[in-house]
Write a structure and sequence with these properties.
Layout: H1 3-11, H2 21-29, H3 33-37, E1 43-50, H4 58-71, E2 77-81, H5 89-92, E3 101-102, E4 109-110, E5 113-115, E6 118-122, H6 137-149, E7 156-162, H7 169-177, E8 182-187, H8 191-206, E9 211-216, E10 221-222, E11 229-230, H9 237-245, E12 249-252, H10 257-264, H11 269-272, H12 277-299
Parallel strand pairs: 1-7, 1-8, 2-6, 2-7, 8-9, 9-12
Antiparallel strand pairs: 3-4, 5-6, 10-11
Helix pairs in contact: 4-12, 8-9
């Protein structure tokens, strides 16, 4: 199914065609708060796993953190692939096919697919082959809104959003329109990645989104034969950036072939080797994020879901 067919498929099931997003944006903003919440009404926290730099392993990190939260921490977890142009979550989560649609409510809602106890939604479910999604900002934002608000997430403790790289429309749209509980930034140790990650941190601070911390991916490589540890991309940069922003380093994920091979196979290491050392790194990251969410929840208003949309 090409992206054009995907838009027609959604429209035929009760969703306005994404191709009319720009023309209908004003009308969409006039919807009531209750109408906008839709599938988010029972979601307690939304967190962004993000990086302003591509190629740092952000999606792999988001998947393993989400699976760790669900399978090891016992949380009710959702995972939203916000990268409309390059959706990789279906591959990483080993999920295929178009989602079903629930038309019983006031508006049709997509039913998320599930694997590893994580409810998942991605625009990649609607695509086949390698045709690019040639859309501009308003259409991308509309597609993102359809998946965010128009999915029947049900009761979730945490909705993990795998953000696209950059500091553009998707990040601003998410940061301005819903109360993110926080953002965790993923970076490799090298300076060229950290420059962009710092820009991403500044963007979220301007949007008044709390920074949960930094995740250092590809932190080091340990030789499988002799155990020698080598910092291929440098060392210390992520810790310095975290200190500059007054946040913690949530974890240091090593550069390991098993992470790559298992991700490509759709079997994230947290699920395929849940008691292994690699899984343990992601579980620690998930636990630290959850601890911060609990602390922020205790500091805020007690009771009821935290999602309110103006």
């Amino acid at each position: 199914m090409t992206w054009r067919h995907a838009a027609k498929w959604l429209a035929g099931r009760g969703w306005r065609s994404m191709a009319t997003a720009a023309a209908g944006s004003a009308r969409q903003q006039q919807h009531s708060s209750q109408q906008k919440k839709l599938g988010l009404k029972e979601v307690q926290h939304i967190i962004a796993i993000t990086s302003a730099k591509g190629g740092v392993g952000k999606s792999t990190t988001a998947v393993n953190v989400a699976v760790a939260m669900a399978t090891r921490l016992g949380l009710r977890v959702g995972l939203l692939d916000a990268d409309i142009h390059g959706p990789s979550i279906p591959t990483l989560m080993n999920l295929r096919g178009k989602p079903e649609v629930d038309k019983h409510g006031p508006q049709a809602l997509l039913l998320p697919k599930e694997n590893y106890r994580v409810k998942t939604m991605s625009f990649g479910f609607f695509l086949e082959g390698d045709e690019p999604v040639v859309w501009r900002g308003p259409m991308v934002n509309n597609a993102f809104d359809k998946m965010l608000y128009g999915t029947a997430w049900g009761a979730l403790d945490v909705l993990v959003v795998d953000m696209p790289p950059g500091t553009g429309d998707a990040q601003i749209n998410l940061g301005q329109r819903i109360p993110l509980s926080g953002a965790a930034l993923v970076s490799t140790p090298q300076d060229v990645a950290l420059i962009d990650v710092r820009r991403g941190a500044q963007m979220f601070l301007k949007l008044r989104v709390p920074l949960l911390g930094l995740i250092e991916n590809m932190s080091y490589h340990a030789c499988a034969k002799c155990g020698h540890v080598e910092h291929i991309f440098g060392a210390g940069g992520v810790a310095r950036a975290a200190a500059d922003y007054g946040v913690e380093v949530l974890g240091q994920v090593p550069l390991h072939v098993d992470i790559q091979t298992k991700s490509d196979a759709g079997t994230p290491v947290v699920a395929s080797d849940p008691r292994g050392d690699l899984a343990g790194v992601y579980v620690d990251i998930a636990r630290r994020i959850h601890t911060q969410l609990q602390e922020r929840g205790a500091a805020g208003a007690a009771g009821g879901p935290s999602i309110t949309v103006e």
